[in-house]
């Protein structure tokens, strides 16, 4: 059994807690939050030990691994403390407020040989995994353009402020929402290394951006567009998609459906020349416990398996999340 | 429960296959009259139960049902609560406490926040009861013999080990609404064993059951085994596995399984509704 602790039981923390609570190889040894309301509910109706001070949780519960799901501004300090205490870490996204904060943590985790993962769950979505496989196999030829998009109804009118509306605390569409798309582009094609221009738009929020439009260049010189808007109420929930043009074909994919066009017969098994459609129903690996999407269970299962030494620490490492933090910072700098 | 239940995903742009189709549905069902027309098609095929989430727009449908008592004299609604995205989007923006403040009716919650009053032992279940009442308001004077807890909440409580809350939901809808509780889940075998331990006998459980094994956590074999050996009232949903299986094959599979009381499906067109309903009737006869 892997002993796991959770710091922060907001929207993501509570979801992680439920998934880990159902995981056969995990014993949840501590749940920590400063909000008494949530913690009292956990304490009263579940059997997880609760703490209000994470340092106390580390001392008393001695977890092998900890999930960090607090607001982004607290990530760096808590992750550092955990690594120094030789604890494996799964941190929510985005990794840190800026690349300067994250860089030493990438190093420290490597030095200490500790498992490190960040919660960019799209990498565990069947369609996006298939896109990655097709791109890596070179089946659509050399990519020359991409379009990464995400839309959803998070801020659809002017309302009260929370940490998500504070730019210094990791709020805003760029950090909170666009980070998913940025991370996906980094992973599937190549890391973003240069930003040509950015428009950050506030639509309903006073302090932060509600939409991000940016022209990007990747380390392999492929260029493309980022278009993300969390104030679009024509979407029922977050919809993330990526489309990639290659010299031998084109891919258009969201989390449900993958459409791929091959110029000739040199395509993966099961595909043919011309348009092909694959659905997530065919590309999804079943999980033992489902909550909100297979990908959320799959990413935590991967983390636990990494801690057990069963799989390599290669998906969503701190290093890859740091590349995303760096891209966020580049995008912000080029604001026009 | 009737053999066939009509679902509402198509009305609210819930499409597990394609975001494009989802937008097309959103356009098609913009007017409430389009929803009513589709419900009429279902009624033509003898389907009298509408299983729907507590989406704001259902309130309009309820109003139409109330205003036409003759037409809807045998019509029943199985509410499924909560409409999760309403809360999920609010939580992203307002946090959990902020969301509760916004949606828990009355000043009950406000006073707790303002006064910083220590929470009494029963308060959380009281909050749940208030939320249930708020969601049930729109169904006044409509037959709601079964009230469901949506899978995101059922499964979260399951993962957190909060059996008492699941049991409390069961008890409250029975006491207050004279209804049976139903549980939607993506983890049917796990949930059933927890409900049994919680003392709920013969529970109504709605879960994905399809030939493709899609969203059947723990595996198709375990689901089939559970259906064969356990006592509960099963509703099969996602029987078409989002199109992964042909309708004929899909319905044949579900109809030959033991212990499935009802089949839930949704469709937008008269042809598709009729086709699916006919397939169910046809394979039920073979059985």
Structural description of this entry:
The complex is a heterodimer of chains A (336) and B (287). The model of chain A has no long low-confidence stretch (mean pLDDT 95). Chain A has an eight-stranded mixed beta sheet. A six-stranded parallel beta sheet of chain A has the order 3-2-1-4-5-6, with helices on both faces. Chain A has 336 residues and is of the alpha/beta class. Chain A is 34% helix and 26% strand. The radius of gyration of chain A is 20 Å and the shape is globular. Chain A has helices spanning 11-21, 36-45, 54-61, 75-84, 99-111, 126-136, 173-188, 280-283, 294-307, 318-333, and strands at 2-7, 26-32, 50-51, 65-68, 88-91, 116-118, 143-151, 192-201, 211-218, 223-229, 239-246, 249-254, 257-262, 274-279. In chain A, a hairpin with a 2-residue loop joins strand 12 and strand 13 (257-262). Chain A has two domains: 2-121, 3-Layer(aba) Sandwich (Rossmann fold); 123-286 and 317-333, Dihydrodipicolinate Reductase, domain 2 (2-Layer Sandwich). By secondary structure, chain B is an alpha/beta fold. Chain B has a single domain (4-84, 142-286), classed as NADP-dependent oxidoreductase domain (TIM Barrel), CATH 3.20.20.100. Chain B contains twelve helices and eight strands. Chain B has helices at 19-28, 32-44, 58-67, 84-103, 108-115, 123-136, 151-160, 163-177, 188-197, 220-229, 247-256, 270-286, and strands at 4-6, 49-53, 76-81, 146-149, 180-185, 204-208, 233-237, 260-265. Chain B has an eight-stranded parallel beta sheet. In chain B, helix 3 (58-67) links the parallel strand 2 and strand 3 (76-81). In chain B, helix 6 crosses helix 8 and helix 11 (247-256) packs parallel to helix 12 (270-286). The two termini of chain B are 19 Å apart. Mean pLDDT of chain B is 89; it is low at 110-122. Classes of the chains: A alpha/beta (336), B alpha/beta (287). The interface between A and B is large, with 51 and 52 residues.
